[in-house]
Amino acid sequence: MPVPDLVTSELTLTGRITTASNATFLGRIGDVVVVYKPIAGESPLWDFPRGTLAHREVAAYLVSQVFGWNVVPHTWLRDGPLGEGMVQLWQEQDPAQNAVNLVATDCVPETGWKYVLEGRDENGRMVALVHEDSPALRRMAVFDTVVNNADRKGNHILAMTDGHRHGVDHGLTFHHDDKLRTVLWGWLGDALTAEEHDGIDRVSEGLPGGLGRDLANLLSAEEIASLAARCARLRLAGRFPAPSGEMSAVPWPLF
């Protein structure tokens, strides 16, 4: 059977993901399962320009590719049944794995996990937000810092069977103001590894060239300049940053 052209072959809708805040659909291009988010279905936001979320998702994929860590699944813009939108390859996550979890405060694992915060659940019980301490999730945290991800919820992290972790839902990225909101604060203040430094350098070095040219079709000049500045600051600090500003450091809801 011939491989479909992912840009021009027919995109057929097969279902809707009703838990998403923007119009989000499952679909197929031939036998390829995809997620489709039409620009026309984006909900207006007070702090992000209208009709730009799909472009930011594609920009996040391009930066992920330059990092070389495969954080973001293949994502592109194309026309669809409801107009132009973002399309992303569907990823079948492992239901037996959770990279981020809520546990009772007296049951926080001593090894292999990072503590983020604690609070009360809907029944008044004390619970702690924790995430796994893995290289794959560390790389995602570095990526989120660079792209200024304002919405890294626990359910936006897909735990794959082979131990890889994909990040999805990157519409709220690349704002020129600091808006990092994430559940992945467990490495706050820790030194970056040589591999993480190298990834940041690849993005910085790509911005004056091909990466910058590609992003110019998706982001404003101010947003690209802010991306370069974040790379430089993170590289100079050499450590995972702390929360800044007056806004919440974590998204809501957390999952």
How would you describe the overall organization of this protein?
- By secondary structure, this protein is an alpha+beta fold.
- Helix content is 25%, strand content 21%.
- The protein has 5 helices and 10 strands; from the N terminus they run βββαβββββαββααα.
- A 5-stranded antiparallel sheet has the order 1-2-3-5-4, covered by helices on one side.
- Strand 4 (75-78) and strand 5 (85-89) form a beta hairpin.
- The longest helix is centred in the last third of the chain and has 17 residues, at 221-237.
- The chain is globular and about 50 Å long.
- It starts with 10 loop residues before the first strand and ends in an 18-residue tail after the last helix.
Largest β-sheet summary: 5 strands, antiparallel
* Low-confidence parts: none
Strand fraction: 15-25%
What pattern of helices and strands is seen along the backbone?
Answer: EEEHEEEEEHEEHHH
How are the strands ordered across the major sheet? 1-2-3-5-4
